[in-house]
Design goal:
By secondary structure, the chain is an alpha+beta fold. The chain has a domain of about 130 residues: Chitinase A, domain 3 (Roll), CATH 3.10.50. Helix content is about 45%, strand content about 20%. It contains 8 helices and 6 strands. It is elongated. The two termini are about 15 Å apart. It is an enzyme of class 5 (isomerase). It comes from Ditylum brightwellii. One of its GO terms (molecular function) is peptidyl-prolyl cis-trans isomerase activity. This is Peptidyl-prolyl cis-trans isomerase. InterPro entries: PPIase_dom_sf (IPR046357), PPIase_PpiC (IPR000297), PPIase_PpiC_CS (IPR023058), PrsA_foldase (IPR050245).
Length: about 220
């Protein structure tokens, strides 16, 4: 009876709402959720002020100095970048950690949209930028990024080269990585649970609406 009432009332409740052209299908939703849940990144940044017209050029100059130091000394890029962050970055919270924003944090973790987006776009292990935001100019170094195969392939993290010199790319050793099949199964179960709750809530709503409209004299659960 609840299901029949729900079928009768839903068209009345939503008769003036057109279905969006770009509405997500269940498969699209699962794919979107999979990517959002499993993309993770370890990013360092250096924030420089943009209080003058020379701010962008100063950021470019620092970027080149970091690159030159890495190449000339065959140094590990994370060490050089972290040292520069401690010395030059005006983001004091991350500067004391060598510019580290977070280790294997999900997409959307950063409060700065431009920086968050860049973390999933710039090449792995390269000093990138400057990227402008309302906070200033950012130099960015991505040290590890998982579940972004189109960007990184199978080499997803930066490590020291042989004898501790230089920089190399290597496969990730992050714990807790899940296959797409595992994640899709989990997300599917979450979606099914969500729609079951919606269905049950809709049945109660339908009965209450029917009672208010005089279709039913009593509601069964009273």
């Amino acid at each position: 009876k609840r299901f029949q009432l729900l079928c009768l009332l839903l068209p009345l409740l939503f008769h003036d709402r057109a279905t969006p052209i770009n509405a997500f299908t269940p498969v699209d939703t699962i794919r979107r959720d999979f990517l959002a849940l499993t993309r993770k990144v370890t990013t360092h940044h250096i924030l420089l002020p943009k209080t003058s017209a020379e701010g962008y050029e100063a950021a470019l100059l620092l970027k080149q100095k970091i690159r030159n130091k890495v190449n000339d000394r065959n140094a590990f890029v994370v060490d050089v970048f972290s040292s520069a962050a401690k010395k030059f970055s005006i983001d004091l919270e991350t500067a004391e950690r060598g510019g580290l924003i977070g280790e294997l944090v999900p997409q959307g973790y950063s409060i700065c949209p431009e920086l968050d987006r860049a973390s999933f776009e710039v090449p792995l292990g390269e000093v990138s930028g400057p990227i402008e935001s309302k906070y200033g100019y950012h130099l960015v170094l991505v040290c590890e990024r998982i579940n972004c195969p189109k960007l990184d392939g199978t080499l997803t993290r930066v490590i020291r080269g042989e004898d501790g010199l230089g920089t190399m790319l290597a496969p990730s050793t992050a714990e807790g990585q899940k296959s797409m099949g595992q994640t899709v199964l989990e997300v599917s179960m979450q979606q099914i649970g969500f729609w079951i709750v919606i269905f049950l809530a809709g049945g109660v709503l339908a009965e209450m609406s029917a009672k208010a409209a005089g279709i039913l004299d009593t509601v069964p659960w009273e």
